[in-house]
Amino acid sequence: MSLLFSYSLSLFFFFFFFFLNLHALRASPDTGILSSEHTNHHFTLHGTRRYVYFTGKPRWVRPMTPMTLTYAFSPDNMINSLSLSDIRQVFKRAFARWASVIPVSFAESEDYGFADIRIGFYSGDHGDGEPFDGVLGILAHSFSPESGRLHLDAAETWAVDFGMEKSPVAVDLESVATHEIGHLLGLGHSLVKEAIMYPNLKPRDKKVDLQRDDIEGVQALYGSNPNYTVGDLSESYISTNLAVDFRTSRQSKWANFILALIIICLCICN
Ligand SMILES: *[C@@H]1O[C@H](CO)[C@@H](O)[C@H](O)[C@H]1NC(C)=O
Ligand SMILES: [Zn+2]
Ligand SMILES: [Zn+2]
């Protein structure tokens, strides 16, 4: 066998294993917040920004600044496993995180019919063409502005405190609420793994802090809250970026190592 032939054979095996590897990643159990908006967004990939909007960049528009959006819980579509006051606290914190970076405030309303944002828990097919799928899989979905519908899958084991809720399939309500509010405001799914708007969340994971990508995305739609300064970006943003770079370089070294290994193997066979 010529050296050229064994080199192309190595390349073939490398790509074979590479695709095998890719497939395995995709086939891993998907427990994410996979929203129905997948087909409805385009990528905004200039510079380092990885956030995404819905087609046409819809956003909420109100004459007053800062604008106030009201939200209400469906009186008929709540769950019994959590108290209403726990659920209200969770959403209050989730809304406050977004409100701290844009000139938009959120107020809970008793008037479900007239609220801008309407929140409820639903099972299976619930009349909007996006049926829920039982435990895990799709956890929640929400619609682009100014629809205001935020639906959570009633079949999930929703948790506000993993110390109290021991189920291995428990899902953190606050993490999902924060993600879904991003959709309500007009953000699609981000490609940045650490971002709140990344489409996957593992059971028993808590991910509630807005990352730089989320903040830049939502501020490009609504502007910045005058009370918000970039200095508020915590240390975690810096370490997160470092971690990403570290992982990327490790991965490519790993790939090179496999390629080297295959070449070495074939050479020994010859
Ligand atoms: C900024 O902070 C002040 C004082 O807490 C508050 O009255 C105001 O509404 C805040 N502005 C926005 C846009 O949230
Ligand atoms: Zn989503
Ligand atoms: Zn729905």
Automatic annotation (TrEMBL):
Cofactor: Ca(2+); Zn(2+)
GO process terms (BP): collagen catabolic process; extracellular matrix organization; proteolysis
One Pfam family from the record: Peptidase_M10
GO molecular function: metalloendopeptidase activity; zinc ion binding
GO cellular component: extracellular matrix
Binding site for Ca(2+) 2: D116
Bound cofactor: record note: Can bind about 5 Ca(2+) ions per subunit.
Residues binding Zn(2+) 2, per UniProt: H179, H183, H189, M197
Binding-site residues, Zn(2+) 1: H126, D128, H141, H151
All copies of domain Peptidase metallopeptidase, residue ranges: 56-224
Protein name: Peptidase metallopeptidase domain-containing protein
Organism phylogeny: Eukaryota, Viridiplantae, Streptophyta, Embryophyta, Tracheophyta
